[in-house]
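question for whoever is on the cluster today: can someone run the full assembly for these? three chains, 1171 residues total. i dont have access anymore since they changed the login thing
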Amino acid sequence: MGPVLRMENVTKKFGDLIANNNISFNLNCGEILCLLGENGAGKTTLMNILYGMWQPDEGNIYLNNKKVYLRSPRDAIKKKIGMVSQHFSLIPTITVHENITIGKIPTIGLSPFLDEKKSKERSKELAESCGFSINLNLNVESLSVGEQQRVEILKALFQGAEILILDEPTAVLTSQESDELFKIIRSMTEQNKSVIFITHKMKEALNCDRIIALRSGRVVFEERVSDINLEKLTEAMFGKSSDFPVDEKKEIKNTKPVLELKNIYAKDERGLDVLKNISFYINEGEIFGIAGVAGNGQRELAEVIAGLHKNTGGKIYFKGIDFTGFSPKARRSNGIAHIPEERHKNGVMIDLPVYLNLILSMEDRKPFSHKTILNYKEILKFTRAMEKDFEIKISGPGMLVRYLSGGNMQKLVLAREFSTLPEFIIASQPTRGLDIKTTNFVREKLIEERNNRKAILLISYDLDEIFALSDKIGVIFEGSITIVDLKNTKRREIEKMMLGIKNDEIDTKAAYE
Amino acid sequence: MELLLLIIAAMFRMSFTLFVPALGETISQRAGVYNVAAEGYMLFGALGAYLTTAITHNAWLGVVAGILCGAFLSLIHAYFSINIKANQFVSGMALWLFSMGFTSYIFRTVKVEGIIIDGFNPLIINHLTNLPYIGKIIFNESGLFYIGILLIPVFYIFLYKTKLGLLIRSTGENPFAVDMAGYSVYRIRYAAVLICGAMSGLGGAYLPLVILHNFNENMTAGRGFIALCIVILGRWNPAGVFLGSLLFAAVDALQMQMQVAGSRIPYPLLLMLPYVVTIIVLVGLGPIMRKAVAPRKLAVPYEKGEE
Amino acid sequence: MNNAGREKIILGRAISLIVAFIIAFALTSIVVYFSGFNVLKVFWIAITGGFGSIDKVSLSLNEAAPLLFCTLAYIVAFKSGIWNIGAEGQLFVGAIGSALAGIYLQGLPKFIHIITIIIAGFVFGAFWGFIPGILKSKFKTNEIITSLLMNFIGVWLVSYVVRFPLKDPDSFIAVTQKVQDSARLPLLVTRTSLHMGILVGVAVAVIIWFIFQYTVFGYRLKTMGVNPLTARFGGIAIDKMVPVTMIISGGIAGLAGTVQVSGVHFLLTEFISPAHYGFFAIPLVFITRLNPFAAIIASIFFGGLLTGSKIVQLTVGIDPNVITIFVSLIMLSLMLDQYIEKGILKLFKKV
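^ ran it for u. tokens below:
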């Protein structure tokens, strides 16, 4: 019996970005296959193709050696592929069994009336076959996240799934729930179901049967877990180790700390801990680079420092003053600037012209306004100056930001943030999605600011960038930051820290405390 | 005592015009579509029923006409809300203004003013109507009223015990899940909106057929908007909606009595009550109740394949 | 400052407005025709009748004034991303304020009294607008529903006031006493009914334009309206701005009540908004695409239509509600056209 799934030479492009580049892999019957990779590596894209959400530009999909065309999730479901994604497709106000059987709602004969008994029976059978029990009569909204996930799994099984895709399922679970999830997955494979487990966490990958690692849209590693070599895997995830030293930068003397975090804790929207006991300081003229895989608390860290997210413990000091309760506006007025991770979402006002975007957060400052009246002459002068200094390609100051390219939009954000004359800059993924020329431009500007004695917090998923720009490096993993001793730590070590590997082992316990 | 019985009887009689449209609105909102124009559907239903009965002298045809007129207007709202994905409040207000203008225009132009129609009269049910007290309150109503009362358990069963009801309840919460499960969100929402239009039309038809035996331009007097309040207060389920309707019908009956009696009690303050209470409940629904009670995707248009 | 993108949008909007008028005209003419009237004659008189003589122009501009205030109130709110649809209620409550100041303050010189009633109308309307605003800010309550319901509360409040506490004891109908002479809005042209309300409205329109164009406050409102996440990111205190904006919006709508009390009826009555100005302004605000100057033109045009509808009733005999039908159809067609406009813009992008 051959592989139950074969994806061959799958390629998917979004404009210039190649999300999946000639990917091929097999899935065997009864196997748990881990699809490992950082955010942006292409795993979600690949699975969305398998689930029929997107069509590949090239390549084929074979189920049990038969070529199939999956044009929508409904097709995938018909072909017995199920997906449990991070956004659940459950209906909160109906019961567990009603959610499970919604694909084919049981009715009493030909009447329109629901057959509740049949719905419960089928659901109970499925749950038992997976080795757990669940209260079928509760509305889904009153279940815990872990329980809801199980309902999703049962729902997929009810719809006949033989191949189940789980997309980052443990992102929302406690460690106990994760263990239970793996038990359920095992019992499913014992019934000859096959599972694709998407994750960026090393410890989960090691619970699977086989690991396929993706990087930049390509398969870079494939090995059975029993045969695995963690060193080789890390190399595959991050590329050949080149111990290139941190780029040389001008030395800045007589520096004082500008920003200091002491024992910062924070929770995310779900109430789970997302920042744990974070303490560090950044001096004048220093770039502190935080390396890490996405989803380890970077966004919340930036927002807590900017004042956009409340911390649940600890203090922030800016130039020696306790900033912890200050509003975002107060922080900005005192000299904190912020280059956001998602410029489209909260960096720009997309339907307003360039010149209005450029003065955001400075609208009440001279020379842009005088006693609450805006001074357009100065604003336009400023716009022209920024256009030149930051090489922003616009057809005129009145151009709507909507029509700017990604690179020019980012340059606009940079121009604005640097112009607030900050003393501290939070730079979150500052070169994400930019072409090489613009990327270099942005990096040069950051170094320029550093050389002007500004303190910069650089958060990036790109380790090369961290190395190129940082004076000091920290690794963030599951909400905790470890400062790296640059003199004594090789790059490969840092990469392992990003994956949570310590001493060639994965610490499965400590992180969830 | 006689007065109290009169008020209670009036409460039941008038409640039809509240709970019938509110039942329809409940269905529609559960599926995710907000009908601000329920007042307009009621006006259409009222006029349609009146004209049809004036011409054909058949009250039941009037009922059918009322239902069809209400449903027709709601079809337009359905198209704007579901296919065009316009802002449902804006399209609702526009339709309401249109129906106010249109019904006034037709009524005055067709010049049937003053024609009294027979409509429905209270049924005398042999033993029941003669019961002391209760007889006067409940068993002195028209056939149409009893049909309305029957609609309450019918809607309850429909919403909670049938397949379409389950789908309607699901569509307002997570239309993407319903789409992925293989059902047409558009069709489900169209059905829900048409039910709302039909019920509102029916509620409107009751006014000329049972209450007034005549038509005047402000017949509905904001009942369609009160229906919106009732849906919120009744927590989007038929039983709650019926109770809410009784409450407001009682207020309505009470204030009418006050006006007639020339009472010095400020009855307009009573008329404000439904709206004030609804706002208070809306505020309370926010932070105090952790779970959302309104359908999560209410008034959010659905793009096929979008989460 | 215009560039290709901006021009396309303006062109698209102009086209959709014209198409909306055409569709509404077509559908309304069907109704008119089947009622047995001459379509062109009806529309001609309805559109031009409001401007046929000084007296008619007075009436039209008097109708335009409350329309303008309500439209401007909506413009302020919608541009800031707040969906206030409660101008009718704010008008009614503003009217209460102006009536109180107009009836019971005695012995004031005219100039002071007029200013007082304007302030009173604004303050009362502002209060009515403040409530949905603070509820949204503090409790995240949907302002569309709260402002919608407060319309009816406001209307019943006036009912209460004119029938009970402030009722004129010498009158058989539900009205208050007349306002003092010193509280009557001055006339713009003697021996007509044309009061200065329209001028105040134009002044308010200019102020609103100025605020949005030239002030820091207006800048922040625009940002909030276009992208609230970015606004917050840039340090704008949205939670404080929402109630303040609603105060302004409600206050402007309250001025609509002021001009009705002090310029048209000279007392407070339940019929202070005979054309339902607050509701009528909702289609208007979409027609004007949130531009205060367009609001002036649109209000005058539709004020003329309102007067024209009464005239066409007198001359041809058609019921004036034909205009309500026409206006609401324009609004519905506009929504269709936004869909078409998106389609046309998409075509431009592909080209």
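summary bc i know u wont read the tokens: Chain B has a mean pLDDT of 87. Chain B has one domain: 2-285.
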